[in-house]
Write a structure and sequence with these properties.
Layout (H helix, E strand, L loop, with lengths): L8 E3 L5 H12 L4 E5 L2 H15 L3 E5 L5 H9 L10 E4 L15 H29 L2 E6 L12 H21 L4 E8 L2 E2 L3 H5 L16 E2 H12 L9 E4 L18
Parallel strand pairs: 1-2, 1-4, 2-3, 4-5, 5-6, 6-9, 7-8
Helix pairs in contact: 1-2, 1-7, 3-4, 4-5
The structure holds 2-hydroxyethylsulfonic acid.
The site of 2-hydroxyethylsulfonic acid (8X3) has 8 residues, from loops.
Length: about 260
């Protein structure tokens, strides 16, 4: 275990999947963590595990990222020492529904747009000024292969992830003169997350989309994020696109069993 570092790492969507895997990796390297999400019980359990395992300080922030007032209230509730993250991992995001555009549900569209785009903006707007003041910091957005390609029935989800890609690029333009690194990871299919079960509204049969090939795991993506963060200060990795070996693109997956 490494000695506890000084500045915190702020992770949104930390209660499961990629966010949780990030908490475990950064925790193992001795970073104090702000773990944010909606589900208090899960976050507190994660905090207790991280504190016991790595002897780090962990701050739980429980709020709905779609609500700008709730984001501000949560941020303002932090003691000053927590309000200067060295890294913001904008991970909170989800897919809801899998319909062609003429059958899509407006409510699903709102949820994806509010979480994946507006939530990312609300948190960035709160955290980025502290980095500008310090002339130091880093933001890593969790994009997706869906931010670079589209696929049938992906419509609004793909649009939100294309927006994340555009925001990563434009945030970098705005922040690089302040010494702040901005980059992203763009994973393909990742199992051990709640992505598929959320997209298919809890339908386990429909959500069994990984059974005939070997996709990425949350930890694979979290390791890519840690790699981006741990480069020397003069290096900014702009995007890591990663997929399982059996996935060549959003639309081409070798569904031949788990052969690797
Ligand atoms: C997750 C990857 O292909 O399901 O962002 O959109 S995909």
């Amino acid at each position: 275990m490494e000695k506890q570092k000084e500045l915190p790492i702020f992770i949104t969507g930390a209660s499961s999947g990629i966010g949780r895997a990030c908490a475990e990796i950064f925790g193992s390297h001795g970073h104090p963590l702000i773990v944010a999400g909606r589900r208090r019980e899960k976050l507190e359990k994660l905090r207790d595990q991280l504190v016991a395992e790595f002897g780090i300080e962990v701050q739980v922030l429980c709020f709905d990222i779609r609500d700008s007032k709730a984001c501000r209230k949560a941020w303002e509730s932090l003691e000053e020492k927590w309000k200067r993250p060295d890294l913001l991992i904008n991970n909170a995001g989800l897919a809801k529904g899998f319909h062609p555009i003429h059958e899509g549900m407006e409510e699903d569209w709102e949820t994806m747009i509010d979480t994946n785009i507006k939530g990312l903006l609300y948190i960035t707007r709160l955290v980025a000024p502290t980095m500008v003041d310090r002339k130091k910091g880093q933001i890593i957005n969790v994009c997706s292969t869906a931010g670079h390609e589209t696929y049938p029935n992906g419509n609004v989800y793909c649009a939100t992830k294309h927006a994340v890609d555009a925001l990563t690029k434009s945030m970098r333009l705005d922040l690089h003169t302040h010494g702040i690194r901005v980059g992203q990871v763009s994973p393909g299919h990742v199992e051990e997350t709640e992505f598929a079960i959320t997209r298919f509204g809890g339908d386990k049969e429909k959500a069994a989309i990984y059974k005939d090939f070997n996709p990425l795991r949350s930890r694979d993506v979290a390791e890519a994020i840690y790699f981006i963060y741990s480069r020397p200060a003069h290096v900014n990795v702009q995007d890591i696109q990663l997929m399982g070996t059996q996935q060549a693109s959003s639309n081409f997956i070798h569904r031949s069993g788990r052969i690797y």
